[in-house]
Amino acid sequence: MNRHDYDSTMVLQATDTEALMKDINRMSFQKAQIAASLSAEKLKKAKRVILSGSGDSYASGVAAGPAFEALLGIPCESIALVELTRHYYSERFQDAVVILNSVSGGVSRVVEAAKRANKHGAYTVSLTANDDSKLSTECRTTVHMELPKKSNPTPSTPKVIAYTASCAGLLHIAVYMAELRGAISEETAQEMREEIFRYSTDALGAAMDTIAGDSFHIADTAWKDFKEYVFLGDGGDLGAAMFGAFKCPESIGRMAHWDDTENFNHVNYFMKDTDKVGTAVVVSSASPSMSRAQETLRNLLKLGRYTVAVSDAPASDFPEGVHVISLPKAAYPWLASSFLHLPLALLAAYSHAILNPEFVPYRNKGGLWTDPGAQRLTASELVIL
After folding, report:
1. Is residue 382 part of a domain?
2. Helices and strands, counts by H and E, the chain
3. What pLDDT, in 10s, does the model give residues 248-300?
4. Rounded Cα distance, 199 and 195, in Å
5. What does the DSSP 8-state code read for residue 143?
6. What is the CATH classification number for the domain harbouring 350?
7. Residue 18, CA distances (Å) to 241, 288, 311, 342 in order
């Protein structure tokens, strides 16, 4: 089989990452653009950073969160939207920078989060492709994320490049904040910007044929046939694991779970019918959890589970029998987490394309899933606590 016969829009959002990210970086994430959008005074006085969003946008905060803590030396929390809007301790919004990520900017819960954070004294920042959205209107300021129209021309296709761009945007904001606060030098900040750009474009571009080839082989020979999926990751790598899980119901309508390696070994380790479950472990080469990931992989092999590892470490770092998809090694310990989702997106996208030759994603199915009133997302009741 020729993988290029299965180049759906979802597939191309991943395989064209190099070209798309060159455009997105140029249009959206230059230092001058970010500096013009953010208040230096508010960023300098911040005592914590809070990242949130719904679905993919939440996962991007999990993936990029470690960069804020590593570079700024202050707490950074990646919080689910409903937790932030309905359950988070209100006094912790004081002196916080709250970055709310939403491509459309129209989801009710993210608007609710902005209203609540503003009410309790936070500096709210929207990261969005829609500057006229409800979220942008509600937040104190907006960092614009320009997505090329060619990146997703088919309506309702599961998003991939938007997630990649969101992660990159958060990394650029973290670098700018660290430079502004004096945590890193101007020279170091510029080196980091250049490396984020290089990794997301040239480095991934040079490796993409191998990444896509490995992903297609796994999807064709095994991944497409599983009835459900489990994705594991720790720290920032959990963001990629979450994203991989999100794409399964969106593309092929099958159940997926995400978890950290420790909890998995206590709980979902005991799932029966292991031949019907595809399992992926995401781990950055610099992750403090590398040894736990390796132990987990060995445990999965003993169970007879078909297991994939996604990492910027080489295949030789993992137990024999694991199907490894390797990305280029990242220059900073916080960098790889924001791009390890790409093979997971391709596993879902190729499985979908092989199973559905017309390339109609499951999320575009209609029928029971049609929501004319949009109450599920954009017309949900706002409650400001």
Report:
1. no
2. 15, 10
3. 999 998 999 999 999 999 998 888 888 899 999 999 999 999 999 999 999 99
4. 6
5. E
6. 3.40.50.10490
7. 22, 29, 19, 12
